[in-house]
Design brief:
The chain has 150 residues and is α/β, with parallel strands linked by helices. The chain has a single domain, classed as 3 Solenoid (UDP N-Acetylglucosamine Acyltransferase, domain 1). Helix content is 19%, strand content 26%. The protein contains one helix and 16 strands. It has a six-stranded mixed sheet with strand order 2-5-10-13-15-16. The chain has a four-stranded parallel sheet with strand order 1-4-9-12, with helices on one face. A four-stranded parallel sheet has the order 3-6-11-14, with no helix packed on it. A hairpin with a 4-residue loop joins β15 and β16. It is globular. The relative contact order is 0.12. The model has no long low-confidence stretch (mean pLDDT 93).
Length: 150
């Protein structure tokens, strides 16, 4: 029975990686988004297809379910590029407004609304998102690598 569990786990991991790779290929080749190697975007993430070439995501970044990434402002009639750095984690139900740049190795807490640029190595939360901690250390997918957050 334990062997069956290991086989299922390996199969699930293989399928998940294959689906992630396929989604990345679809978004970059068909929609013209820039998505770095190893980045994972949830199938339930909401990406702005009004200006899809305006979405830029760095390497090994994790975008979780119900995240909204916007690249246009309907009221002002603007199309803007939105940048998310490498090795970032974007928490569930966060909203990234158009024209925002999120630096490398940042963590955006769940439910945050990012309305302005975020510097590298920052942990932010809230509506609007405020920097809670600077100079954090993260590994792949924005996982904390240094001292724990207080």
């Amino acid at each position: 029975m334990a062997k069956l569990g290991q086989i299922l786990k390996k199969s699930r991991t293989f399928l998940h990686r294959r689906i992630s790779w396929s989604r990345r290929a679809y978004l970059t080749k068909v929609w013209g988004m820039t998505i770095g190697e190893g980045s994972r975007i949830s199938l339930k993430a909401r990406l702005d297809f009004t200006n899809p070439a305006g979405i830029h995501v760095g390497e090994f970044t994790m975008i979780t379910p119900d995240v909204h990434i916007f690249t246009h402002d309907f009221l002002r009639g603007q199309h803007c590029d939105t940048f998310i750095g490498s090795h970032c984690f974007i928490g569930a139900a966060s909203i990234i407004l158009p024209g925002v740049t999120i630096g490398n190795r940042c963590i955006i807490a769940a439910g945050s609304v990012v309305v302005e640029d975020i510097p590298d190595r920052s942990l932010v939360a809230g509506n609007p998102a405020k920097i809670l901690k600077s100079d954090i250390q993260t590994g792949h997918y924005g996982m904390l690598a240094g001292p724990t957050v207080e």
